[in-house]
């Protein structure tokens, strides 16, 4: 089955801890994205990557970091510098402009992060 | 003025009703318009994708784009309880902010279809 997987489904973090959220896709998509969703806030872009070994900050990148060492993987680290990390985190991917419609983003099932 | 406005609802309708969901936007550069359905505690699922103005139909769903009014709509015919979810509109422009493919989302409308 082709798709996007995120793990874990639920994650609990203590104050001052860094945690890493996993995102893997087997759709052969070039572009990958991380969003944060808060109640009543809609989706806000944290980071995105259009090709391997390259990524760009989104609207709310402070306190987060990413890497893109492989095409199929785009992990997100929530650092202790993120002051309000409790949220629902969504990973998405899309085909790059070079090969097709890049606007159609497909989402994973999400990770719910709670700070204790 | 926010870039994309969407009434959060909640919207409650009886089974079989026609549902109309809407978004307005301010950036005339937007050309790509999408509707996503999101069930509680799940990731959004792409429902409809349209480019520029016009209508697109897929089964019980019809998406309309009116670029002159900066207004998009999603119609659901013969609504079912399984349609109960939050519906998100999303849109983008080519090279928006220098970042191809970045979507701007509405906050979502919560729909409840009662049996």
The N- to C-terminal Cα distance of chain A equals: 35 Å
Q: Give the overall form of chain A.
A: globular
Rg of chain B: 14 Å
Strand content of chain B: over 45%
**Shape summary of chain B:** globular
Helical fraction of chain A equals under 10%
**Overall SS class of chain B:** mainly beta
Number of E-type strands of chain A: 11
Roughly how many Å apart are the termini of chain B? 38 Å
Number of helices of chain A: 0
Q: What is the oligomeric state here?
A: heterodimer
- Total helical segments of chain B: 0
The main sheet of chain B comes to: 6 strands, mixed
Helix content class of chain B: under 10%
Mean pLDDT of chain B: 90
Q: Give the helices and strands of chain B as they follow along the chain.
A: EEEEEEEEEEE
Sequence of secondary-structure elements of chain A: EEEEEEEEEEE
Spans of chain A of 5+ residues with little confidence (pLDDT < 50)? Answer: none
| Global mean pLDDT of chain A | 90
Radius of gyration of chain A: 13 Å
Strand content of chain A: over 45%
């Amino acid at each position: 089955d082709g798709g996007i997987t995120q793990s874990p489904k639920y994650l609990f973090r203590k104050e001052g801890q860094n945690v890493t959220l996993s995102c893997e896709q087997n759709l052969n998509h070039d572009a990958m994205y991380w969003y944060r969703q808060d109640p009543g806030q809609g989706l806000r872009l944290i980071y995105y990557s259009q090709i391997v070994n390259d990524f760009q900050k989104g609207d709310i990148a402070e306190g987060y970091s990413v890497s893109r060492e492989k095409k199929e993987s785009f992990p997100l680290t929530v650092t202790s510098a993120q002051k309000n990390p409790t949220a629902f985190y969504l990973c998405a991917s899309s085909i790059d402009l070079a090969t097709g419609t890049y606007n159609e983003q497909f989402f994973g099932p999400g990770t719910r992060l709670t700070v204790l | 003025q926010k870039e994309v406005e969407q009434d959060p609802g909640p919207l409650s309708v009886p089974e079989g009703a026609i549902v109309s969901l809407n978004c307005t936007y301010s950036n005339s550069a937007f050309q790509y318009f999408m509707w996503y359905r999101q069930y509680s505690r799940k990731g959004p699922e792409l429902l409809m994708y349209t480019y520029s103005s016009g209508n697109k139909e897929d089964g019980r769903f019809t998406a309309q784009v009116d670029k002159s009014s900066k207004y998009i709509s999603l119609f659901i015919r013969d609504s079912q309880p399984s349609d109960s979810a939050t519906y998100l509109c999303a849109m983008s422009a080519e090279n928006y902010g220098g970042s191809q493919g970045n979507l701007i989302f509405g906050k979502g409308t919560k729909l409840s279809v009662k049996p």
